[in-house]
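Working notes for the structural subgroup meeting. M.R. asked for a predicted model of this chain before we commit to crystallization trials. I am recording the input and output together here so anyone reviewing the notebook later can reproduce the run.

Input as submitted:
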Amino acid sequence: NPAADNVNIFLAEKAEGEAEMKIYSMEGNAVWSKTYSAVPSSVNVSQLATGVYILDCTVQGKKYTAKIIKK
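Returned structure, recorded in token form:
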């Protein structure tokens, strides 16, 4: 589902610890990044332009990736 302001974060497995979140444009350019002390339940994407992005979340050396559609 397209997101307007917030993207909910659901990982396939339980992950604890510091979470590094990055959002990339489809061209591969990093457009946003933030490090959290724990995996957040959502990420605010209101500052992004309309389009399709890739969200990378790295926790304890494991990388999780998802596609985001910003409306």
